[in-house]
Known about the structure:
Keywords: Amino-acid transport, ATP-binding, Nucleotide-binding, Transport. This protein is of the alpha/beta class.
Amino acid sequence: MSPPETEAGTLRVSDLHVSYGRSVQALHGVSLTVPQGRIVAVLGSNGAGKSTLLRAVSGTLALHRGTVDSGTVHFDGVRLRGDATRSVAAGVVQVPEGRRIFGALSVEDNLKAGFLGSARRSRAELRADRDRVFTQFPVLAERRRQAAGLMSGGEQQMLAMGRALMAGPRLLLLDEPSLGLAPLMVRRIAEIIREINAQGTSILLVEQNAAMALELSDRASVLDVGQVRLEGASADLAAADEVRRLYLGESYGTGCGAPDADAPYATSASTPAVTGPGLTELGRWNG
Length: 287
Ligand SMILES: Nc1ncnc2c1ncn2[C@@H]1O[C@H](COP(=O)(O)OP(=O)(O)OP(=O)(O)O)[C@@H](O)[C@H]1O
Ligand SMILES: [Mg+2]
């Protein structure tokens, strides 16, 4: 039975509670939606629960000894129950924090590894997917026989994204793709995210680089200590005083339009929790 039209290709996270072991409660009732074809961003400081949220969606929590205590994750109208293989088969694919490429393997073998979890199996499909990734990331074609660990951080990020694309995602989960990259490379990664989305893949983008994330996304949520503090259209969040002060830093310029070319996607030095007055005009997800 096909899902109702409004749920087709939609990710719906509802009231998710996640813990690690007995003592660490990482998410306290997080809800968010990624409609088909959209880019939704999740912002938040260190330890806010951003990666935990993506792990819960991709079914990789168990690898980190985490468990979903309550709440649900649905994609395309089907409940995902924390099984990574099923999530990938459903078209939900994660690019983990820190890239996690296989450094000793060649670029090409890393890409092949991405194909393993997908529903498509023939050699012809593998080649077609690989060639598509090579077209999108020419540097990966140039380095195809090189050990992946020898590439730069930005190139490794491209490989991690290329590997995820090999699984044919309908929804791509990106965990801090800009982390540790120089500004020009951050801009290139942002362009690639836009291209991938334009080709029809929905994106849930976790970032500490709020300027980049708000420019790319349609909507965004701000996570703070495991809860959604703010949710709204990205343009509204980018214009909100508190978000500008706490997450965008001084050099961001005029809202979510075009950041200063010399300081693309500048982040503030620290990203403290969002609290206090001044935020009530923005929609809060949890009432
Ligand atoms: N494997 C784990 N075992 C125990 N606690 C964990 C584990 N992973 C994360 N946590 C805890 O869960 C909370 C949320 O962590 P998470 O990694 O999701 O945050 P984050 O927003 O991704 O942070 P960062 O920006 O630093 O990547 C933190 O308190 C963290 O210490
Ligand atoms: Mg993280």
